Sequence to fold (506 residues):
Amino acid sequence: MAFNIQDSNMDNEEDLQASQWYGVREATLFLVDATHRMFEIEKNQTQPETERSYIQKFFKLYKQILRQKLAWSMQDWMGVVLFGTEESDANSSWKHIQNLQELRVVTLDDLQRIRKLTKSGMKGYQSIKSEDAYPLHDALTYAIDIFLKIKTVLTKRRIVLITSHVAKLADDEKHRIRSTAASLKDLDIKLYVIGLGKNWIQDQFYKDLEILSRKTDVDVYRMTSLVDLVQQIKAPSKNIARLCLKISDDLELDLVVRTLGRKRRCLRTKPLSKATNQVLSRSTYFKGEDSNDEENSDNEESNLPFMIPEEVNWETKELIGNRKLRFTPKERSRMKHIHPPAIKIIGTRPIPDDLFRYHVKRKYFIRADYSSSRKDNLLFFGALLNKCATKGKMIVCMFTLRMNTQTNLCYMIPNADLGGFFLSKIAYKGDIGDKSEALHHYDAQNWVTDEEVILWKKTIDKLNMDYHPCKFRSYKLECQIQIVEKLALDKEPGPPPIDSIEQSCK
Fold:
């Protein structure tokens, strides 16, 4: 018996170790410029009380990322390396480089350490005294060495260079840095360059570093945005499929289907026992109509007036073979037309003005597959995209994501600025709540006149708001994250978070 218990314990340890090796996780290593230019305070004439140095702005943003990673229990890896410091790590041969946070799964200690560091004003970290020294080449080599030592499988690996100025480097030094950046492409590590400050203009040298580290063409290169990069780290969009676009029997294109981000999800609550702190399970029962609690209180458990609900069956409206057919929900979900995974073009339609009125399902984004081996794949896709955008047409297509899955009718809406199509599921009448018939029974329908409709249209047109989803956070989620932080840090509850939606209405 002891032998079996030992075997089971060994199996559990192997499963735990395997779960640490494999899984869906991303690794992001920040290379932060710690020279004296990063400690300069950016002036803000409208709000002087919000003036901070560039490195303080980065750590404020980094704390927000850590908070969300910890609250959602995500297994992504994060790390911070400072380069351009006067001191170096102990027992390290790399000069002017300090590892502030080791690249690993985010923990609560990491968040506390970053908070203490920002409150102390970066105490213990001083910039290099020489203004000409800029060890960017050593920092990139050090970051590559960190990734090479990791044996854990990572779905995405990225290095983010944070700076606020364009360093003056010699041509030989720039060549060395470009060669190091080009080696990242073979290691499947992407390099992003983020410049802080309103006056930041990306130099051609930094553009070369990003292009050399990626498997993309110069024509499709886009400068990295800080907002987009942070959104990718906090709620990353992913490639969910590689499909072919069937234009005709003789013409097919290779495409990549991507998500537009993750849904805002609130933290899950689980019922716990107050005595043992064990997770309790919930069960739902239907009470009988003729039951009486007082009469049946002393009966046995088998005579309790509760019953487990049965599955609701679907029934056909019309007779098929002189009888009505019934299906269980599981059988009903399996009834579909089977098509191979692909996107098949049916036709085109003009793009309406109220296209995004109905949100049936979350949308996807389609772009060309840059790693395709088809000849002129990118050229044909670009021609199709530009033609649809100039003509104001959208494509009606059949979309099958996986084998043995349901085929949906979708619109492919062109967006030339982003270099792809939005894929939106077509809304049917059954998916849209049409209240026109019900409104005939109420007099309120006649209260709205054409003049009032025109007035509201003019009012909406005059509204000028720079809308971005990052500016309007989920107030419920922010409250939940704050509660979890207070419990984890053993602190007293503070004031509630600011409701960004309520502020926008003032």
